[in-house]
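=== RUN LOG ===
request id: a7f3
mode: sequence -> structure
chains: 1
length: 185
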Amino acid sequence: MPATTRDRALEAAVEVLGTYGVRALSHARVDERAGLPAGSTSNWFRTRRALLAGIVDWIAERERADFDPAALPRIATVDALIDGLCVMTELQSGPYAARTRARYALFLELAGDPELGEPLRRQRIVFEQWSERIVTAVGIANPVPATRAIMALGEGLLLHRLTVDPDLDLRPSIERAVRALALDA
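=== RESULT ===
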């Protein structure tokens, strides 16, 4: 099914935001990036705030679709958890890098706007709950703090990969942390 004008605008907006930052985001730049006639993005999102809200929702929808637990293999061992975390971090810092950078930019930009930032925070909570269920299933003790530690490590590795070392080998850090948490029973 071909992408709608709205979808094309949102995809382009995420690319602009993730590539050039929040200050570069404009309706005209999104139209240009998406190859749309001038004013197309504005037809869907009248204001900058409406465009930001659309981007927040679009990112949350895409992440739910890309990392849908029902579509992913079941993780029941520490080794499978390590593999899954490596794959997810590779995807978010590789093919989905612009979207990840856009998400980070939005978290920072919308920190003072609880209403606009709410979908991102809700998405984070859902992801944290899903991760906690996996951590519990693989038998790691104290799953709440273990999940938070794993997620913090993942965010740090993502940020490092996106800003400092795009070729960073993630596995040693992820494996060391997960195995240490698994032994902390």
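=== NOTES ===
The radius of gyration is 18 Å.
Residues 105 and 166 are 18 Å apart (CA to CA).
=== END ===
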